[in-house]
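Quick question, first post here. What does this chain look like in 3D?
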Amino acid sequence: MSRSQFNFHYSFRIRYSEVDAQGIVFNAHYLTFFDSAMTEYLRKIGYNYVKEVEERNEDFHTVKTLVEYKHPIKFDQIIDVCLRVKKIGRSSLTFYLEIHPTNEDSVLAT
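> Answer (accepted):
Ran it through. Tokens below.
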């Protein structure tokens, strides 16, 4: 997708602790990037996660995650995790996320 199709993005600079011996982001960190972007998105729209869990005794649960690695992400690279809500169901919420180099349309991961 084009970056213009996303209404939210969150930036990261890749730290040394996130890369392997080849200087490429270790695959498990992608989920952390996605989770952090979702948290920041909810914060931006005014959703207070802790308050909602306490008051409603309801919580989010991840039931499926699929990551497609398109191009390597390297140490010290600045990336944007772009997010959009794909679907709102009666008891579910589906996000679509992509990782782009900052200010570029090329896709590093979905």
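The radius of gyration is 15 Å.
Helices lie at 29-44, 49-56.
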